[in-house]
Amino acid sequence: MYDDMFSVIKEAYMTLPKFPVVSPDAGVLRQVLSESPELMVVSFRFETGAEGKLHKHPHVQSTYVSKGKFRFFRDGAAYELKVGDSLVIPGNIEHGCECLEEGELIDCFTPRRDDFL
Fold first, then answer.
1. Tens of pLDDT, residues 63-109
2. How many CB atoms sit inside 10 A of residue 113's CB?
3. Three-class SS of residue 3?
4. Which of 4, 12, 40, 56 could bridge to 112 as Cys pair (CB 3.0-4.6 Å)?
């Protein structure tokens, strides 16, 4: 029984899509981790001092700090986030960040950001 279950899990894992790492800005690496039309999970890795420039999009976004320290700007307010902190950004709200200490953000977008594919 367990051998059959392991084979199914192994086969599913082996066929997961792999997405390329891209550099959208200096000191920033982005990689889609998983996606469906309704939801996308993305890793952003930042060097100290790198910025996610102010922008907005129609997608609801959540961000989770898995490593490092960041200053986020959301709709004119500033927030300092460290490992374990998270922030939700409603659609069409101007936002961006500055990396204060080398780190990684795990962001979820709903719906999927087709421009990242």
1. 999 999 999 999 999 999 999 999 999 999 999 999 999 999 999 99
2. 17
3. helix
4. 40
SS3 call for 117: coil
Phi, then psi, of 11 in degrees rounded to 5: -65, -40
Tell me, yes or no, if the pTM score tops 0.90.
no
11: Cβ contacts below 8 Å, ≥ 6 apart: none
Place of tokens 């990242």: 116
CA distance 89 to 108: 10
3-class state of residue 65 by DSSP:
strand
**Quick one: which of 1, 103, 4, 2 has its CA closest to 52?**
103
